Task: structure prediction
Amino acid sequence: MRKLVAMTLLSLTVASGAVAQMDHTSMDHSSMPMAEDMVHAPATLNAIGDGTINVSHGPIAEIGWPAMTMDMPMMEGVTLPEGMQPGDEIIMMLGQDHEGMYAIGGVAAAE
Result:
């Protein structure tokens, strides 16, 4: 968990300069979930598709999901960390879109 927090803080620090120079006035962020609304769950990355990942995860009590293997769509703009490959243990961050469907809002390597 400490590694995840450190990685998040580092990425925010590094990205802040680039983000400050972007013009966000025309971007619609209304359908993007906030970080505090994300559900974090450990999983195994099985396969990487075009805009999806296949994962196996245990039960996710926060959203009432049993353990399963499934294809998960990734939210627009979400990418996997460099070097991540099938077989890796991950922490997936799940958020809901405006229709209530869950999608991957972020992925980090598990400790």
